[in-house]
Structure formats: C-alpha cells, structure tokens
Amino acid sequence: MTKHPQSLRSGLLATALTAATLPGLAQAAEVNFATPPWPGATVKTEVASQLLERLGYETSVKEASTAIILEGLVGGDIDVDMALWRPSQSDMLDPRLETGELVEVAKNIQGARFKLAVPGHVWEAGVRSMADLAEHAERFDHSLYGIEPGNVGNEIMQDAIDADTYGLGDWKVVASSVTGMLSQLEANNDGGRWTAFLGWEPHWMNVVYDVRYLQDPEGLWGGASTVSTVASADFLEREPNVAAFLERMVVPIEVQNAWVHEFSREERPLEAVAGDWLDANPELVGEWLEGVTSADGATPALEAYMDAYLADR
Fold it and tell me: Which end of the chain is more exposed for a tag (fewer CB within 10 A), N or C?
C-alpha cells in the first residue's frame, strides 16, 4: 500500500540502511506524488500509487495546496501532481511550463466543471447567472462559499469582488474546506436558505445534491474544464517508464465520481477504495499499462502487475 507521510521517513531510512549494508542491492525507483486535499484527486493519486507499487516502485503521497505543490515540483521535492485544473489554474501552471521546468503529461479527466454554483431551488427561483447574484444579495448573505484558503477558485471569486464584477463588490468569500463548504450547503438547504458555492465535477456533490452551475457572461471561469497530470521535467527524463504510464492514465469522469462517492460520502478507507477498484477493473488497468514495464524493465507491466496481484492473494 502507499506510504503516506507519517510512515515515509521510517521506510526510506530502512531502505537506506539496507542499501548501505548490501552494496550490490539496487534501490527501487521512487515516485513522489502530491495532491491537494480534494477527494477525487486523493483517490486518483492513490490508484496511481498502488498500481506503480505493484510494478516495483516505491511511492509516497504528500497533501498540500496547489501553490505549494507547484513549488515542490520545481524544487525537486515532488515528482507528480495529477490535479491541475484548466483553465482555472492555467495562470499558476503556464509560466512553469514555459520555462521547461514542468511538463503537462496528460489530461487525465476531460469534461470536468469548476465554477460557481447554486442549489436547484435557487436556480428555479431565477438565479441562472452570476449576473443575477447582486439582485438577491440579502438572500445569499453577501457570501460566496469556497474551500481551502489559497485555492484558485476562492481567488477567482475574490477577484470578482475586488473588481466589483457582476456588482459583487460588497460580497465576501467564506474560505473553509470541502467538508466545511458542503456542510454549510446542506445546512442551508435544510433551512431553505440560499447558497452560492464553489462547485465542480467529478465529485459526489453532483449526485447527492441538485447542483446547478451558473452562467458566466464575463468568462471569469474560462471554458470547459480538464484536469491535467503535471510532472517535473527532470523526473520524466529520469523515469521514462513512469512517464509512459502517466500519459496513458486517463480516467472516465463517471469512474472518478464513483471513487469520490465511496471515499468521501460513504467514508470507505482510501486504500480499500483504490485497491478494490484496481482488482475489479483489469481491462482499464491493462489499457493504462500498454507499452509500460516493471520498475526494473525486465517484465511487461501487465504481467508484473498480475504477478503482484496474485502474490497478495
């Protein structure tokens, strides 16, 4: 299973001591992932991590904000992030792509959405666009609900407020967390109150709640969204086999919706959600592993993956 931060240091120390004691023993290649604290990104990263471990890689997963992750990718402390949203995070990512320090490996989710939303009862009352918000400011308590501080969605909303776009100059962004924001949404829905909140798909909120995405005539949120896998250029040059896998790991949006529902809504353990899905979906896993090998390069990836699967049984 994936080594998370609390166990990573001891695991690496043990590996280092073993290598020092047995000079002829080669260390397994390492892949250091990072992910923002979003359920979909968390499960997707865990799936990739477990799959690579079955191929003989050592993996770790760090949780941090996107801004910190990008700095870590440039600095070499992080190898891969699978949760860069376009176009909403393009301004953060593009300068680093232009320098050649980072590479956009693949669009791992297509048809995604990331923008301001309202619940169905508010939509039915006539709020269909961000341009409709100011007219009903009191009903919304002059508040736009976001997630963790520093998130680009919060920043887009704050920029709209600062520029008085759509007449939102006297509104505020309520920064919280994914859990906190959705708890507020549920409480407001139960009380018949109105909420404007940061919504996105894939996510279980689109299954559990009647989420309606607001029109955006000024184009603050950009066009249709995709989610990209981004990696350090140095890492990709060093690990072309992992690069080949990352290029092929494209996740159907309905699959990630299901992951998020199991992990975040049903509260199943992260490792179980990822591991059970991998075991139950050999066809898609096989597609991701075409042209890839085991970490040592000696075995086709699917064969190595199945050997590891059977050894665990």
Answer: C
